[in-house]
Amino acid sequence: MKKELRLYFIRHGETQYNIEKRMQGFCDSPLTENGILQARSVGAGLTDIPFEAAYASDSQRVLDTAKFAIGNRNIQLTKDARLKEMNFGVLEAMLQTDIIAQHGDIVERLFSFTDMESKVQGGESFTELLTRTRAAVDDIIAKHKDTGGNILVFSHGVTIGFFIKSLLNMADYPHHDNCCVSVINVKDGVLMVEKVADPSFRDNGKLSLSLSID
C-alpha cells in the first residue's frame, strides 16, 4: 500500500520586480530584504513539520527562498526547471502599466482562460505550463510514493495557482502572496487540496522569529 504524501507548495519571497510591478516569469530579480525575511519566516513557521526532501524551480529567486526557508535543516534540495514560472515572452520585465497600455487585449485574452492554447509572442500557453508542472509533480510523487511523508516544493505564483486551479476546477486561479503555502495531500494516487495560499505559516513564523530576537 502506497503511503500518504503531503506536498507543501511555497511561492518565492518578494523580489525587486514585485516592488516595481514588472512582469516576472522566466526573467529574474533578487529577493528584497523583506523577501528574505518572508522566506526565513515561512521556514520558521514550518519548523515542527518533518520534511523528507525539497524541490525548487531553477530561478534564482526561488532557490534563494528555499535556502533561507530551509536554513540549517538537513533537507536535500533538488532543482527542477519544470517548476519555473510561466514564460511571458515579450512581456517579460515590462512594467504592468506599459503592458496594459500596449498589450492589454492580449493579456486579457490570455487570462480569460477561454483558450488554453493562447500565448503571447515568445511565451507559453497555460496548457504548456500545466503540462510541465504536472510532469514535475508526478515525478516527485513517484519518487516518494513508497516512503510517504512531507515534501517542500518551492515555485511561483502563477505556476502554483494554475496547478491548484486545475485540481479544483476553479474559474480563476487563486492568487498566492509571497511565501504563502498551498498543501496537497496525495493518497492512493489521488491529489486532494488541503490548503490554498495560506499565509499563516509565514506570519506565525515571522512572529516566532521576532520573539526569538527579543
Evaluate the radius of gyration: 17 Å
**Mean pLDDT score, rounded?**
95
Intertermini distance: 47 Å
Biggest β-sheet: strands ordered side by side in the sheet: 3-2-4-1-5-6
Features:
214 residues; six-stranded mixed beta sheet; globular
Task: Describe what you observe in this structure.
It is a single chain. Helix 2 (33-45) packs across helix 3 (60-70), helix 2 packs across helix 7 and helix 5 packs across helix 6. This protein has seven helices and six strands. It has helices at residues 16-20, 33-45, 60-70, 96-110, 126-144, 157-168, 200-213; strands spanning 5-11, 53-56, 77-79, 149-155, 181-187, 190-198. The N and C termini lie far apart (47 Å). The chain is an alpha/beta fold. Strands 3-2-4-1-5-6 form a six-stranded mixed beta sheet. GO terms for molecular function: fructose-2,6-bisphosphate 2-phosphatase activity. This is Phosphoglycerate mutase. One of its GO terms (cellular component) is cytosol. Keywords: Hydrolase.
